[in-house]
Amino acid sequence: MSQVLDTPPPTTVPADGDLAALAARHGLSVSGARPSLPAYVRRLWARRHFIGAFATAKLTAQYSQAKLGQVWQVMTPLLNAAVYYFIFGVLLQTKKGVPDYVPFLVTGVFVWTFTQSSIMAGTRAISGNLGLVRALHFPRAALPLSFCLQQLQQLLFSMAALVVILLAFGVPPAASWLLAVPVLVLQFTFNAGVSMVLARVGAKTPDIAQLMPFVLRTWMYVSGVMWSIDHLVADREGLPSWVGPVLQANPAAVYIDLMRFALIDSFDASRLPAHVWALAAGWALLAGVGGFIYFWKAEETYGRG
Questions:
Q1: Which of 33, 55, 70, 297 shows its CA 20 to 30 Å from the CA of 13?
Q2: CA nearest to 161, candidates 267, 74, 281
Q3: Residue 139 forms part of a structural domain
């Protein structure tokens, strides 16, 4: 009898549901859990100053070991344009029938470089910054966004050189130059969205960074950077009728054509599809919103494993 009386009462283990309710009642959450999309946007906005400072610091450090320093921000795309001019403009004669070919080419190279560099940086945004990701708690989307902002800052330096080139080749200043601002906003949104998609893919598969240069090189050749898409389609008999519209609807070609339309007075507006602005906005919305949501859905996995 005494043994029965001395036996302690069985311990009641709270059910998982009870523990979850208790944690929620006291404001506790799972460590590293993904916040809701509105909360994530608010946290990202709260760190906007970090995003800007991080982008500026990366841009400053990029050429810190070079003797010419930040001059290479302008020299690199200009040298690329010079190489493309010799190969495509002189040897392959793609400049035939294209008025103001040098401004046409340099504008295409600068705008394409913005997209190319943003996407390449995005592929390594997480995998190349694992120390930062694991050490600090912040919205991981800040990293691909900061890299895209870095490339935008670099493009703005290049645009100053582009203005000099335009004036040197007789392209007069015009009110249409102001259209460059909305073009850059749309292109930045598109670049950021694609960068976030590849940042998530690159976090799981770092080898994607080795593949992307080949993908981007192919994309550049079909985007009319060095040649006119209209002239290509007109000069190639037997091409299927869908080739021209598909090439013109290519997002890189859309943003390049819009920038040429804004800056070069001889760039014929009839070369642009009638719905080009809607197309540019559509690509920006699709990539920007879709890429952001795709990245956010894997927020709690970055830096693990």
A1: 33
A2: 74
A3: yes
Question: Which H/E stretch holds residue 142?
Answer: helix 142-168
Report the pLDDT value the prediction gives residue 28, as an integer from 0 to 100. 46
What does the alpha-carbon distance between residue 164 and residue 144 come to, in Å, rounded to a whole number? 31
CB 147, CB 52: distance < 8 Å: no
Nearest-angstrom CA–CA distance, 229 and 253: 9
- The total of structural domains in the chain comes to 1
Q: Is 5 exposed, middle or buried (0-12, 13-18, 19+ CB in 10 A)?
A: exposed
Range of the domain at 244: 37-301
299's tokens: 């927020």
User: DSSP alpha helices (H): ranges in 169-302?
Assistant: 180-204, 208-221, 229-235, 243-249, 251-263, 276-296
Q: Could you tell me the CA-to-CA distances from 188 to 123, 192, 253, 266, 275 in Å, in that order?
A: 16, 6, 14, 26, 20
Q: Is 263 exposed, middle or buried (0-12, 13-18, 19+ CB in 10 A)?
A: buried
Measured CA to CA, the distance from residue 226 to residue 220 in angstroms comes to 9
Look up residue 230 and give its two tokens.
């209209």
- Residue 134 has, within 13 A of its CA and on its CB side, a CA count of 9
Q: Is residue 11 part of a domain?
A: no
Question: How long a stretch of residues is the chain?
Answer: 305
Would 199 be classed as within a structural domain?
yes
Alpha carbon distance 68, 186 (integer Å): 32
Q: What is the pLDDT of residue 36?
A: 92
Those residues with Cβ within 8 angstroms of residue 291's Cβ, 6 or more apart along the chain or in another chain: 192, 193, 194, 195, 196, 197
Per-residue pLDDT at 29: 46
